[in-house]
Amino acid sequence: MKISRLLIFVFLIAPYFLLAQTKEILFSIDNHPYYTDEFIRVYNKNLDLVKDDSQKDLEKYLDLFVGYKLKVEKANKLGLQNGTNYQNELKSYRNQLSKNYLNDSKVTNELVREAYDRMQQEVRASHILVLVDEGASAEDTLKAYNKIIDIKRRLDAGEDFVKVAQQFSEDPSVKENNGDLGYFSAFRMVYPFENAAYKTNVGQASKPFRTRFGYHIVKVVDKRVNRGEVSVAHIMILKQGEAAQQEKALATINDIYKKIQQGESFESLAQQFSEDKSSAPKGGVLQRFGSGQLSSEEFENVAFDLKTPNQISAPFESQFGWHIVKLIEKHPVRSYDEMKAELEDKIKRDERSLLITNSLAKKVRSKYSFTKDAKLIAKIKGTVNDEFYSQTWVVPEKAKELNGVVLTINKDKKVTGAIFLDFIASKQKSNIKTKPVSKLVDELFEKFVDEQMIAYYNDNLENEFPEFKNVMDEYRDGLLLFDLMEKEIWNRAKNDTIGLNDFFKNNIKNYQWKKRYSVDILSSTDVKVIEKAQKFLKKGKSLEYIKEQLNKDGKINVMSKSGMYEEDYDVLPQFNGLSKGVTSIVSKDKYYFVVNVTDEKPAGAKELSECKGKVISDYQQYLENHWVDELKKEFTININKEVFSKVKNQLNN
Question: What are phi and psi of 8, to 5 degrees?
């Protein structure tokens, strides 16, 4: 039968690495050498995992290992390693495995801990924004910087933050909120803004800082313990324009509240009357939320003020209308261990990820050498123009002089100018504004170097980390072996009708029925109930009738099961000399049983249709056992007995 690719062979279970002190050729298959270090590593890795002590015998283990490698050789001989599905799956697995190595774990762990610590608090802050693009010209950047510095001077001189925000902030929402952003926690704001908010004391304004939106000053109004998240349902009546309509809406929400107090279903009333069309069909249920995630602070505060599940608020007003809220569940901030994986994932999608990438880039730049062709870069600069900024620039025809080697990494990886040109083109959608074009190309080349260096590092993980190479080798062999087994064994066992029938007939002794009985088995914990059931059976009453008579007032006093069972099934051995008719009563494990035998069949051979799954499984095992013998004839195997003797001494000592 088919099994998971990773469980095909005991050699492929959970990595544990113990390398041999020496590396010699242990055996070869058609002149393909296999070395002692792999054999010793695999043996030690699986020593405590194999259940069959015979497999710990080194002679037998070597035979198993050779058989395993014979199958891999056969797979390669058939060209299975060239299959598209195989290549894609191997690539996918490598990509997943390499993520652990393309990550500065120290920086990542620091960011995860920082984010979790910040999530224990919620910050309420106001800000002033002076807009300026990330790639703005030096002139525009300086103009924005001077403006934010002037604003900071005003604040330091004692001017009111709200008034200054109303006068100078370029955040469009300032007219409505006076720069007040409400409460928020980690990951709710861009990372530089979050940093400033958490590092500034309550009542103070930060120094000017820059995000991708421009320059900011943030004033921290309050900090409080994180309230976590909450799940609620609500009923909403929308605000209307005229006073009379608003009075009608208020009267409606009050009437609904009275109905709830009278005991009517909140969910039913939400479905009938709530004017929030997205939640009404679900009984008013909203997605769980935390502070700062909704547009209404009033709504959030009422929701979080509810204390116990199913508690319902009185009607209240928000900027959108009138609401009644029902608490479903409160979700406190989870533990660090519970959130660690989720926070790592958030960090990968957040601006924080740049810190990790930059750290890795710095690491590989110090690890590998690289050279660049300044003359070729200068020529490439000449092909890039201002169309880049409007995302209409097109890579020029690959002139021969532009397709030379622009970057060499570690003397063995050559990267052409054509690849750099394609990289430049791909960055147009990034909306980079750096000017002039020559400065833009220099900036992009540095990013290009980082990308290529990290790619080179990724390509060489097998050389850098022996454990990575070992896992990849095992997975590569495992995939091949799975495809080979499917082709040579599993599909053959299922589709070879003649071979399957012959195997079944030749091994019919393994597929025998014991004596069988067609029975109704009734059970109860009450002996008086089972006695009544026995009387009903003797009178020929049906199981339905018996249950109807004995299971009353919502209490189940008797259970039954029916079928054709072998003589040693479950409780049947408790009855002496089973025969047609109703048995006596027996007890087992605090239960009382009575059986009605309606038919019996003698012991005998099974039909293939009655045990086909088991026969196919056995036939597969038969084919596999004989298959290795066939492979030993197909390939030439040479085992170095002297080297194996040294391996045995090493492992036994």
Answer: -60, -35
Domains and CATH numbers, the chain: 1-101+480-511+606-653 (1.10.4030), 121-225 (3.10.50.40), 229-331 (3.10.50.40), 368-461 (no CATH), 512-605 (3.10.50.40)
Q: State the chain's mean pLDDT as an integer.
A: 89
Share of the chain above pLDDT 70, in %: 95
CB 162 within 8 A of CB 126: yes
CB neighbour burial string for 617-634, b if at least 16 within 10 angstroms, e if fewer: ebbbebbbeebeeebeee
Contact 239, 318 (CB under 8 A): no
Q: Which of 164-173, 210-219, 290-299, 365-374 has the lowest mean pLDDT?
A: 290-299
CA nearest neighbour of 577 among 515, 520, 534, 524: 515
Residues 82-98 have pLDDT tens digits of 988 888 888 888 887 88
- Closest Cα partner for 37 from 15, 64, 18? 18
Higher pLDDT residue, 334 or 348?
Answer: 334
Residue-wise pLDDT for 541-599, tens only, equals 999 999 999 998 889 999 999 999 999 998 999 998 899 999 999 999 889 999 999 99
- Strand-pair category, 591-601 with 581-582: antiparallel
Average pLDDT of the residues in 185-204: 94
List the one residue out of 99, 639, 633, 613 whose CA is nearest residue 341.
Answer: 99
**Backbone torsions φ then ψ of 630, nearest 5 degrees:** -65, -40
CA distance 119 to 641: 63
Q: How far apart are CA 633 and CA 302, in angstroms?
A: 79
Q: State how far the Cα of 456 lies from the Cα of 91, in Å rounded to an integer.
A: 16
CB-based contacts of 146, cutoff 8 Å, min separation 6: none
Distance CA 370, CA 586 (A): 85
Q: At 365, is the secondary structure helix, strand, or coil? A: helix
DSSP label at 351?
T
User: How far is residue 418's CA from residue 24's CA, in Å, rounded to a whole number?
Assistant: 45
The residue among 80, 81, 66, 82 whose CA lies nearest residue 631 is 66
Q: Please compute the mean of the pLDDT values over residues 96-115 and round it to a whole number.
A: 85
Please answer whether residues 623 and 41 qualify as being in contact, where contact means their C-beta atoms are separated by less than 8 angstroms: no
Of the candidates 352, 403, 339, the residue with the CA atom closest to the CA atom of residue 373: 403
- C-alpha closest to that of 380 among 427, 418, 339, 328: 418
Report d(CA 347, CA 345) in Å as an integer: 5
- Give the range among 27-31, 401-405, 430-434, 526-530 with minimum mean pLDDT: 430-434
The residues pairing with 523 across neighbouring beta strands, listed in sequence order, are 559, 593
- The continuous run of DSSP H or E covering 60 comes out as helix 58-77
pLDDT at 414 over 50: yes
User: CA gyration radius for the chain?
Assistant: 38
Q: Quick check: 131 and 173 in contact, CB under 8 A?
A: no
- Token pair for residue 551? 């299971």
Question: How many angstroms separate the CA atoms of 83 and 503, rounded?
Answer: 32
| Rounded CA separation 130/303 (Å) | 35
H-run or E-run covering 605: strand 604-605
Structure tokens belonging to residue 177: 């909120």
Q: What is the pLDDT of residue 357?
A: 83
**pTM for this one?**
0.57
pLDDT at position 52: 59
Q: Give, as one character, the DSSP assignment of residue 294.
A: S
The single residue listed with the structure tokens 């109303």 is: 166
